[in-house]
Design goal:
Keywords: ATP-binding, DNA-binding, Metal-binding, Nucleotide-binding, Repressor, Transcription, Transcription regulation, Zinc, Zinc-finger. With 157 residues, the chain is of the alpha+beta class. It is built from six helices and six strands; from the N terminus they run E-E-E-E-E-H-H-E-H-H-H-H.
Length: 157
């Protein structure tokens, strides 16, 4: 790390703390040459490779806007969408990769979205799993029913 004051090529870390939501580290540094102190913020970069081959930084806002379309008319709040985007980012970052395919991001959204709202999940899954027939929808609905507790059993004495 170069000193921003004298451009010396080395510095000593005086203090380190996590910043923001734990995705960044704030370091207080001191230059051994001029003795001045400065702060750096270190974050890991996460890039998304699009189908076109273009690479862009990961964005929670893009997750939210994409999922918002699937949730249109559903009882899903902005806070729910923000939490979903955070869960997706944490899942992707836990894989330890610096670059992920955009399609993989879409598939990662499916789990948390299924927990949030089943109708929105089906809407979103129809795009990211490339549903091409009515049978694809029927299979997805059948899978949702298998994982759901049977309500008729709950009403028995």
């Amino acid at each position: 790390m170069h000193c921003p004051f004298c451009r010396h090529s080395d510095s000593r870390v005086v203090d380190s703390r996590t910043a923001e939501d734990g995705s960044a580290i704030r370091r207080r540094r001191q230059c051994p040459n001029c003795g001045r102190r400065f702060t750096t913020i270190e974050t890991t970069s996460l890039n998304v490779m699009k189908r076109s081959g273009a690479v862009e930084p990961f964005s929670r806002d893009k997750i939210i806007s994409g999922v918002r379309k699937a949730c249109q008319g559903r009882p899903v709040s902005d806070d729910d969408l923000a939490l979903l985007a955070q869960q997706v980012e944490e899942t992707i970052r836990s894989n330890g990769v610096a670059e992920i395919d955009a399609h993989e991001v879409g598939l990662t959204i499916l789990g948390p979205l299924r927990e949030l709202d089943e109708v929105a999940y089906l809407r979103f899954a129809s795009v990211y799993q490339a549903f091409s027939s009515l049978e694809d929808f029927e299979a997805a609905i059948a899978a949702l029913r298998v994982d759901r507790p049977d309500q008729s059993e709950e009403s028995l004495p």
